[in-house]
What we know:
The chain has 4 helices and no strands. The chain is mainly alpha-helical.
Amino acid sequence: MIKDRKITSHRDLIVWQKAMDLVNLIYALSRNFPESERFGLLSQMRRSAVSVPSNIAEGRVRKTTKDFLQFLHVASGSTAELETQVDIAFRQRFIQKADYNKAMALLSEVGKMLVSLISSLNAKL
């Protein structure tokens, strides 16, 4: 979260901003996937990536902290799903090692931020 500034929107959350960076990265990495993966892994990876910031945003506008937490847990689950899909893409040689490492590092960062936010909100319940 941003210190010394009031959070007025999901856009103010650094975890949402990083999740949006993750979406951009996944779209870029998946552009060169084989055509045969258009409705397979490519589509699934993009949906998982989009799910992360989408759930953060939807949860942020909910009326209760409990509701927000539920959506953050879904976002966290999507990071685990996407991590598995990035592994598959690498094993299938659809992405290079450097791109794999970049995606995994950003996934780890977003995942840790979600865990931290979840813990912080749980402490307030």
